[in-house]
Amino acid sequence: MPKRKVTPFARFLLAMVFIVPLAFAGASYINGEDPIQNFKDWTGMGQSAPAAQETSASPNAAPVRKAKTAKPSLDEEVKRLEKEVAKRDAAIKDLQQQLENCQ
């Protein structure tokens, strides 16, 4: 016979060690997420060393700016979108004409 018994509270704690992570993984899986990646993000395990050092920098430090990529200017973007709208308008008119011909 064992000299020590496991108390009900110890059983409860041992059960929670297994039940809570399984419930977390199940809920993540049901929501269509990756449970392992969620756990890593939640605990900070998924961060690389430079990213972890960045977050531990002083809060008064100036934010690091990323180099700007070559983006088209606003005028070029507007012109491109206007051309796209014109093409779609022409396509709509063609489809309306085809619909009228079918009726």
Please state the overall shape, judged from the principal axes of the Cα atoms: elongated
Main β sheet profile: none
User: What is the first-to-last residue Cα distance?
Assistant: 91 Å
Q: Structural class, from secondary structure content?
A: mainly alpha
Strand content: under 5%
Q: Quaternary arrangement of the chains shown?
A: single chain
CA-atom Rg in angstroms: 30 Å
Mean pLDDT, as a whole number? 80
Count the helices. How many?
Answer: 4
Helicity, in percent? 55-70%
Q: H/E element string?
A: HHHH
Q: Count the beta strands.
A: 0
Poorly predicted ranges: none
Protein name: OmpH family outer membrane protein
Keywords: Signal
Region (Disordered): 42-75
Signal peptide: 1-25
Description:
This protein is mostly helical. Among the domains are: 8-47, no CATH class; 72-103. It is 66% helix and 0% strand. It contains four helices and no strands. It is elongated. It starts with 7 loop residues before the first helix and ends with a helix. The model has no long low-confidence stretch (mean pLDDT 80).
